[in-house]
From TrEMBL:
<dbReference type="GO" id="GO:0005938">
    <property type="term" value="C:cell cortex"/>
</dbReference>
<dbReference type="InterPro" id="IPR000048">
    <property type="entry name" value="IQ_motif_EF-hand-BS"/>
</dbReference>
<keyword id="KW-0067">ATP-binding</keyword>
<dbReference type="InterPro" id="IPR010926">
    <property type="entry name" value="Myosin_TH1"/>
</dbReference>
<dbReference type="GO" id="GO:0006897">
    <property type="term" value="P:endocytosis"/>
</dbReference>
<protein>
    <submittedName>
        <fullName>Myosin Ic, paralog a</fullName>
    </submittedName>
</protein>
<dbReference type="Pfam" id="PF00063">
    <property type="entry name" value="Myosin_head"/>
</dbReference>
<dbReference type="GO" id="GO:0051015">
    <property type="term" value="F:actin filament binding"/>
</dbReference>
<keyword id="KW-0009">Actin-binding</keyword>
<feature type="binding site">
    <location>
        <begin position="122"/>
        <end position="129"/>
    </location>
    <ligand>
        <name>ATP</name>
    </ligand>
</feature>
<dbReference type="GO" id="GO:0005886">
    <property type="term" value="C:plasma membrane"/>
</dbReference>
<dbReference type="InterPro" id="IPR036961">
    <property type="entry name" value="Kinesin_motor_dom_sf"/>
</dbReference>
<feature type="domain" description="Myosin motor">
    <location>
        <begin position="29"/>
        <end position="696"/>
    </location>
</feature>
<dbReference type="GO" id="GO:0030048">
    <property type="term" value="P:actin filament-based movement"/>
</dbReference>
<dbReference type="Pfam" id="PF06017">
    <property type="entry name" value="Myosin_TH1"/>
</dbReference>
<dbReference type="GO" id="GO:0000146">
    <property type="term" value="F:microfilament motor activity"/>
</dbReference>
<dbReference type="InterPro" id="IPR001609">
    <property type="entry name" value="Myosin_head_motor_dom-like"/>
</dbReference>
Amino acid sequence: SEYQGLHVGGEGRVHRVMESTLTARDRVGVQDFVLLENYTSEAAFIENLRRRFGEKLIYTYIGSVLVSVNPYKDLEIYSKAHMERYRGVSFYEISPHIYAVSDNTYRAMRTERRDQCILISGESGAGKTEASKKILQYYATTCPVTDHMSTIRDRLLQSNPVLEAFGNAKTLRNDNSSRFGKYMDVQFDFRGAPIGGHILNYLLEKSRVVHQNHGERNFHIFYQLLEGGEQDQLSKLGLERNAQKYHYLVKGCCPRVSSINDKSDWKTVRKALTVIGFHEEEVEDLLNIIASVLHLGNTQFGEGEDGETQITTESHLTYLSKLLGVDGPALREALTHKKLTAKGEEVSPLSFEQAVAARDALAKAVYGRAFTWLVAKINQSLAFKGSSSVIGLLDIYGFEVFQHNSFEQFCINYCNEKLQQLFIKLTLKSEQEEYEAEGITWEPVKYFDNKIICDLVEEKHKGFISILDEECLRPGEPSDISFLEKLEDTLGGHAHFVTHKLANGKTRKAVGREEFRLIHYAGEVNYTVNGELANQSVICQSDNQILSQCFHREEVTTQKRPETAATQFKNSLAKLIEILMSKEPSYVRCIKPNDAKQSGRFDEALVRHQVKYLGLMENLRVRRAGFAYRRRYEAFLQRYKSLCPGTWPNWQGRLADGVATLVQHLGYKAEEYKLGKTKIFIRFPKTLFTTEDALEARRPALALTLQTSWRGYRERAKYHRIRNAVIQSAWRGMKSRRKARRRRHAAEIIRKFIKGFIYRHYERCPENEYFLDHQRFSFLMTLVRNPPKSVLDKSWPVPPPSLTEASEHLCRLCMQNMMRAYCRRIQPEWKKQMEQKVVASQIFQDQKDSYPQSVPKLFVASRLGREFNLKVIQTLGNDKVKYGVAVTKYDRRGYKARPRQLLLTSSFAVLVAEAKLKQRIDYTALRSISVSSLTDGFMVLHVPSEDNKQKSDVVLQCDHVIEVVTKLATMADKKNKVNISQDSIKFAVARGKEAVIDFTSGPELKVAKGKKGHLLVTAPQLNPR
């Protein structure tokens, strides 16, 4: 099979390149119709389709267009493995497939950041719906997805069974025929994951609600509800589980179909409605509408005593008013009377035929608008409002020609005219852009421009739709015949419009008196004007939530005439074309091989009919107007390089030069090819076929060369294996001997160690010398690896007994070395700080309670700032101030506190008050310094009372007493003259007179004069001893 690839891709996946099947073209045809030699022959086109269909190859390209033939059976070409095979592969690197189109579109959206669309068209039964399903399944399987995106993916997939239930039906051509056109946008985020969607529906076949041809059925949902609905639910809806009892379901005489399981499909639809997000109330209202349509069909009319039309089936009318949520009498009057607005409002009874028509019109309107609401609800569940990239899927009828063609066929064929016009325009545009990008001269292509037909239908004031609108709006009762006459008067001279009256003698026989003929791009079609001007009825006062959203009261109250169905369709089609023009299109053309739905049967006449109406020959002619084959240089050179000695086995230069060398060797003529910037263009398929045949002829020689090389390689490999076996044997023996020696040596070491451990307490002897040496070595290595890290680190490993003395010596040397290193690293300022802290420790440690709090606080050079009073400095002369601090001096009499500054120089201390030197104390005259053991800041400087220069002992208080005493003791060299008293300090106030300072502990610091003339100081004791 063509789907079993032979070419290994970049990711290890196996592909079958398109050219690989050309040598078998007589059996399986060509994969691309562009490669047909006789591309203008319709017979050759169909014969290629037939060959491929016979080989179960249902996909063929026309350039980038995919032609798909319905096989009417399951083929093993849609598995996940096939999806992976096509993912990320260049379009022509592998055989044609719907997955190739899907992946190419997806990658173009990701890389080019431009929205894409895939247009799927074909007759009913050609496989359009299945093609759109395969595309959605491919994206759902291969695109990245998260938990939230998984919900969106499920809703996208589950929208299919819901839309099929309400919009598909069994026809003569297809058991699951889509009776509406669908355009779906699938939205993707920047990572390429599906995040939302939107659906537009076109041309729902509402006439099927009230009438079906023989052998056909109504929409699936009616039969699914009757077969699968629970009995309680059916009773509530007033329904019976028998489709034969409903007028709208028996006209086709086909209530059951062997290939359809309505009961199972009902479960699928109910589950899908839940996944999409329908509430139970909404589902109930929706089923009420479905049941009301069946009751409408069973509503019968008869004549009363006065000849007026009346409803004869009251039970159905009762259910109708209940299910539709409308007033019963109002509904009765709406079905049997009509309102005329002419000089006031009048009510006119309907005839029997008019009442039946009004009933059917109501059924069609209710079902049609409920379907529109259903699509809107699905869109609401798929909505994504942020920025996104889009891939659109258009699944719409192909060109249709029946024995009797009504207004619906006219709209379908008009749509296909517009899509054909768009296709030809975009195909020519893409061809021209590729030629210009590759630097190839563009040659204008002659083709049939169907703009003349589109204008015939849609031109303002002169087109078919404008005439239809005008006829509907004119006063009086419009008729089909008057409309036909108006067409003849306005369009009579048009080359693509013919009626019975305007036709010549030969053509007149083929055109009925109530018909007109349009000559479309795909052929001639006769349309009947019967029923073109039919009206419809609406309900605007329903309590049903869905109907209240579908029908608006403004439609009844407004005086404006509504747009005709043709105008509405023209406007929606214009919007669709605008959407498609904004996107980069891809095309899938679906063909059904026979009307009997039999696998393996190929009806040539039917296929020819579809080839014509799909415009495939015109597509091929446009695509073949220039060059039939084009391929990138690397792909062309990789495939055919073996045909030229200059490019085989590998080309080392520029790819363009390699391709030029190759085609010159192959003898290509100048008119047969062109070299672009990145691709080679070959004009004739015959040139490619000759090249492929040459490659096929070359393969035996290549195979022989490969076989010879393989045999030589195999024998050399065998020799190397034998030689390596000998070497490996010798090597393994040597390794084993080395291993045995290592084991013996290890065993000997273990024995020595065990014996040494046993004799470890004896004097050194042969039995323990290995163990003792090992102990010494282990101790020394432990010391090397983990020595003390700092002078404060007192850790040291425990030495063995024989190394105790050496260990102590090493420890001492290590500590000395670390101390020297530490001392060398100390800065002068820090050294001075530490010296002062050492003096403070010697004086105050364990003596004064406030000492521990002073340890972490650094001593400073001065507590007064850097500047001193200029007058004081002048008075001191050459004696520089080394330290200054604010203190409180207590007088000898009365102990009055006076603020002073204590300045220390190198030889004396002075007390300063307001730039005046109050007292000078020479260090030589300083006898001692007294402080208390509590946390107070008092200190007494004792001086000789005999010295006339000194007044008396000095009582000072300072917040930094530890710092002041340390600095003063150091400068005066009185470290040993600092007295610390616990209870009291005596000091001299005059010659022969003394005073006392009493210290006590209390909650807070207090200074007061006692009764005996003592100075009482109370300070909190932080560290009681």
